[in-house]
C-alpha cells in the first residue's frame, strides 16, 4: 500500500516538473489583441494595419507616409485573395473594395477595428463584426472634403454629357471644327429637386415651373454640396434637409409619388448610399426611442426587406418614367442601377446619356458594350480621390490607429456598431 502511494506521488512530481520546464505557447485567439506581438516583458508592442487590395493606392501610400515616424505601427497591403488567410495577424483592417463576410471576420482573432477609407461600408458584415466584438467605422465625408470632391465630379459628368465630351474627341480625330452643337447649364433657370429618404416616408417637391430641373436622388453631404456648387450656374436652391426645411419647400408629397418628379427632371443625379440607412435611418431611430423591443425587431425585418429593394432602384420602370432624352449621373454605387435597363434605354434613345463614376463590377471591363455608346462617360471610381481628401483621410486613419495603440478613445470617425 505504501509502495503504491509512493509511486503515485512520484508520478505527480514528474508531471509537475514536466509542466514547469515545457516551453509555453501563446494561443492567439485568447491573447489580448494589443499584446500578441510582445513575447517578453519590455518588448515593443506592434499594431498591425491591413489595407485590402491594390486599388485606390494613394490610401495606403499616404497613410504609410503619415505613420512612418511611428515604428510600432506596421502598415501592409495585401492582394484581395490573400486577405482571408492573413487577417488573423492584424488589429486594424481598411477594407476599400474588399467584401468582409462573416467567415472572414470570424478568422480575425486580433481585430479591433474594421474601417473604410471613406464612407461606404456596404461590403462589411456589420452584424458579424459586432458579434465578434469588432468596431466598424467610416470617415464622415464632410470632414475630409470627400463630399465636396464627389459633388464636383457630379458637375463634371453633367457638363461632360451636356457638352458631348466623347463626340468632341471624335471631331478632333476627324479634323472638324465648330461641331457638334452642345448644351450648357449656365444661364438657364434651374431648380433642384432633392429626394430625402431620411424624412419619414416623404420627399420634398420644389419649383417645377422652371425650364430646367435637376433631381438629386439622395440625402446627405454630397447632395447638399452639389446643390451649393450648382449656384454659379444660376441654380436656384429651394430645398434642404437641414433645419427650417419647411420654409424652403413648395410642396411635400409621399415617397410613393417619386416617379411624378422623375418624369419632369432633365438631369437625375444619384447620391444614395447602398445600405440600410438609405431607406430607414429616420424611422429606425424613431422606433428605438418610442417603441418597445418587439416592434423594433419587427421593423428590423421590414427595413431589411426595403434595403434589398434599394439595390437596382434605377430600374426599367424608373428609367421609363424619365423624360425622353434626360441624363442620368451616378456618383454613388453601381448596384443602384439595373444594368440591362440602362442598356435597353440607351439603345432606344430614351435615356439621353449616362455619366457614372461607379460600375456594376469593379474594376469594370473596358470592352463592355455600354462603353461603346457615345453618350456614356465613365470614370474609374475617382469622385472622392483627390489630393486634399486622401491626405485628410490618411490623417484620420493614422490618428485612429495611434489612439487604438495607446488605448485611447477613438475620435474623428463614425462608429456604426
TrEMBL record:
Organism of this sequence: Arachis hypogaea (Peanut)
Keywords for this protein: Membrane, Oxidoreductase, Transmembrane, Transmembrane helix
Residue ranges of every copy of the D-isomer specific 2-hydroxyacid dehydrogenase NAD-binding domain listed in the record: 214-278, 308-383
Gene3D superfamilies for the chain: NAD(P)-binding Rossmann-like Domain (3.40.50.720)
Residues covered by the D-isomer specific 2-hydroxyacid dehydrogenase catalytic domain: 60-411
Protein name: D-isomer specific 2-hydroxyacid dehydrogenase NAD-binding domain-containing protein
GO MF: NAD binding; phosphoglycerate dehydrogenase activity
Domain of life: Eukaryota
A Pfam family per the record: 2-Hacid_dh
Stretches that traverse the bilayer: 203-224, 282-303
Family: Belongs to the D-isomer specific 2-hydroxyacid dehydrogenase family.
PROSITE patterns assigned to the protein according to its UniProt record, in alphabetical order: D_2_HYDROXYACID_DH_3
Keyword Membrane: yes
InterPro entries: D-isomer_2_OHA_DH_cat_dom, D-isomer_DH_CS, D-isomer_DH_NAD-bd, NAD(P)-bd_dom_sf
